[in-house]
UniProtKB/TrEMBL annotation:
UniProt key word NADP: no
Keywords: Amino-acid biosynthesis, Aminotransferase, Cytoplasm, Pyridoxal phosphate, Serine biosynthesis, Transferase
Protein name, per record: Phosphoserine aminotransferase
Superkingdom of the organism of origin: Bacteria
Catalysed conversion reaction: O-phospho-L-serine + 2-oxoglutarate = 3-phosphooxypyruvate + L-glutamate; 4-(phosphooxy)-L-threonine + 2-oxoglutarate = (R)-3-hydroxy-2-oxo-4-phosphooxybutanoate + L-glutamate
Length: 360
C-alpha cells in the first residue's frame, strides 16, 4: 500500500485513522453481525450512530439549542434551491458573488424571486473579497447570502459582511470545521461534507429553529422543506447512512485532536508554510489578495501554462496528487484541509523548491 498526499479540492483526503477504523468495522459493526452499509436506518444500532454524530457535532461547534442540525442529501447544490424555497417570504434576496459557487446559488435563486447581486469580485477573476461593510442591502431582502470560503479561487471572508440586520446564509462547504464557528451570526450555515469532513453525498445544514416552518414557496417538494427533515430527525427518507457514520468518526477524530481551536491553529501553521514559500518564490505566485487568502485552498501559478502542466505531472510522479487548478482558472491549487498532515504541506514545499531550482 502506498498512500499519496492528496491535495484534491473534493472529494478530498480523510484522516487515515478514520479510514482504518472503518476498515476494521467493514464486515461487522460492533456486535451487530453486519456492516453499517447493510443496516436498517430504523435499527437501534443506526439510531445510536446518528444520535452520537449529531451530539458530537453539536459539542464540537458549540451549537446553541435553538438551532437544528440536519443531515441532507442532494449536495451543496440542492441547497441553492432549498434556501430560497424555504426563506424567500418576500421573494427578494441579496447575494454576494465571490466565485462560481456563489454565482450558481445566485442564479438558482432567480428562479424563485428577485435575487440581487449586491457585491461581486468577478471583475478581477474572484481574486479578492469585496468590502462588505456598507452594502446596498435591500430593505425587503429575506436574507443575505455568501459563500464563505471560495474553493476554486482560494479566497475567504475573514470578516462576515454587515447585513444591516438581515439574516445571513452561508455556504461553508470548503471551510467547515476548519476553525471555531459563531453560529448565532447565521440564520443558516451549511456545507457539503466532501470537502473538509467526510465522503461525498451529504450536506450538513445548521438552521435557526424559527426559520423552520410550513410557510414555504408554493410548489416546494416535500423533500425540500427543512421542516420535514427537522420533524423526522433527518430520516424522513432513508438517509446516507454510511456518510453519517463516517462523518461521526471524523467528529470524534476532531474532538480527539483538541477541537476547532486546535484545528484552526494547525491550519494557520500549515497554510503559512505554503504562503511564506510562495511570497519568497521567484517562480511561483499566489493568485489571491493577501488579506483574503483561504487557509484551505491555495491557488498558485508559474505564469507559464506548459510549466504549470509539467509541475502537476512531476508532482504526481513524486506522490503529490491532484494539484491541478480548477478548469476555469488553470495553474495549480493545493487544498490543505483538516486531514492533510503538516508533513504533506512540507513535502509539497520541498518539491516546489526543487522544481524552482531545476526550472529557472
Ligand atoms: C464543492 C462546492 C459546492 C458544490 O457541492 P456539491 O455537493 O457538489 O453540490 C458548493 N459550494 C462550495 C463552496 C463548494 O466547494
Amino acid at each position: 500500500m502506498s498512500r499519496v498526499y492528496n491535495f484534491s479540492a473534493g472529494p478530498a483526503v480523510l484522516p487515515e485513522e478514520v479510514l482504518r477504523e472503518a476498515q476494521a468495522e467493514m464486515l461487522e459493526y460492533k456486535d451487530s453481525g453486519m456492516s453499517v452499509m447493510e443496516m436498517s436506518h430504523r435499527s437501534k444500532a443506526f439510531q445510536n450512530i446518528i444520535d452520537e454524530a449529531e451530539a458530537d457535532f453539536r459539542q464540537l461547534v458549540k451549537i446553541p439549542d435553538h438551532y437544528k442540525v440536519l443531515f441532507l442529501q442532494g449536495g451543496a447544490s440542492l441547497q441553492f434551491a432549498m434556501i430560497p424555497m424555504n426563506l424567500m417570504k418576500n421573494r427578494v434576496a441579496d447575494y454576494i458573488v465571490t466565485g462560481q459557487w456563489a454565482k450558481k446559488a445566485y442564479q438558482e435563486a432567480q428562479i424563485y424571486g428577485k435575487a440581487n447581486k449586491i457585491a461581486s469580485s468577478e471583475d478581477k477573476t474572484f481574486s479578492y473579497i469585496p468590502d462588505c461593510s456598507d452594502l446596498p442591502v435591500s430593505p425587503e431582502a429575506d436574507y443575505v447570502y455568501i459563500c464563505e470560503n471560495n474553493t476554486i479561487y482560494g479566497t475567504k471572508f475573514h470578516k462576515l459582511p454587515n447585513t444591516k440586520g438581515k439574516l445571513l446564509v452561508s455556504d461553508v462547504s470548503s471551510c467547515f470545521l476548519s476553525e471555531p464557528i459563531d453560529i448565532e451570526k447565521y440564520g443558516i450555515l451549511y456545507g457539503g461534507v466532501q470537502k473538509n469532513i467526510g465522503p461525498a453525498g451529504m450536506v450538513i445544514a445548521v438552521v435557526r429553529e424559527d426559520l423552520i416552518t410550513d410557510d414555504v414557496l408554493p410548489g416546494t417538494p416535500t423533500m425540500m422543506k427543512y421542516k420535514i427533515h427537522a420533524d423526522n430527525g433527518s430520516m424522513y427518507n432513508t438517509p446516507n447512512c454510511y456518510d453519517i457514520y463516517m462523518c461521526g468518526k471524523v467528529f470524534k477524530w476532531l474532538k480527539a485532536m483538541g477541537g476547532l481551536e486546535v484545528m484552526a491553529q494547525r491550519n494557520r501553521e500549515k497554510a503559512a508554510i505554503l504562503y511564506d514559500f510562495l511570497d519568497g518564490s521567484k517562480l511561483f505566485k499566489g493568485t489571491v489578495v493577501k488579506g483574503d487568502r483561504s487557509l484551505m485552498n491555495v491557488p498558485f501559478v508559474t505564469g507559464d501554462k506548459e510549466l504549470d502542466a509539467k509541475f502537476v505531472a512531476e508532482a504526481k510522479a513524486a506522490g503529490l496528487e491532484n494539484l491541478k487548478g480548477h478548469r476555469t482558472v488553470g495553474g495549480m491549487r493545493a487544498s490543505i484541509y483538516n486531514a492533510m498532515p503538516k508533513a504533506g504541506v512540507e513535502a509539497l514545499v520541498a518539491f516546489m523548491k526543487k522544481f524552482e531550482e531545476e526550472n529557472s
